[in-house]
Design brief:
mainly alpha; 2 domains; 2 strands; globular
Amino acid sequence: MGMTVIYGVMKMVNLAHAGFMMLGAYFAFELSQRTAIDPLAASVLAVPLFFLLGVATYWTMVRFVPVADEPTLPSLLLLFGLWLVLQNVGYTVWGADDRSILTPMTMATLRFGGITIPIIRLIVFGIAVLSLVAWHLFLNHTWFGRSVRALTQNREAGQLVGIDTGRTAMLTFGLGIAFTGLAGALLATLYSFTPDFGGSFMLRAFVIIVLGGLESFSGVAIGAIIVALIETFSILVVPASYQLAISFSLLVVALLVLPGGIEGLLQRRRRLQ
């Protein structure tokens, strides 16, 4: 969702996504190690902090990149360079050793019939769903949410009706980074991590937004479910190490067969009806 909202309003592919996700993981780790705060509570606290970090990043760097209707080389180079900087900061501060976050719920499970579900994964899934619901309500029931949707659909028309594109872009970038920090902190409770953490998740996120539709917020949720189901059940046929290759295959199929993503397909069906 963080990549989608930034692309929708600013037409920038946030290649620094993985770097901010890595910082979210270490934020939850440091807060849980140095205080008595639960890592899941730390992930929620990451939202306002990373929102401010995103606003600061926009104000100091991103706002100087010219806005265009498609991703530009300067924006790609800037955000890719920022990713490398954040990654090397991570190596300098925390080193290259694997870190992990263990809680009393890490090994706890629930059983439903013959299915065993780790409680920690259930909680992370619940927080993710609540985040999507909150974002949906925010988009549809606030003036700022309406301005985000307007700029996503048509930037020029949004400017004509008086939307402050600079302020909206700044707050949108902040919200996108807030989602990214939350995701990194939540994933840190599920996986071990190093300063390289986030790269594979960023690639999957890109597959999801292309599959769902680059500017479609609802399409992202649908694309995430499709990618998750295919990757999960593919281990019945191919080794788990091929999961990332399966995601890239989905990307190729989406680009060739569904260039507008699932949302584009749904819109064509509505027009035909």
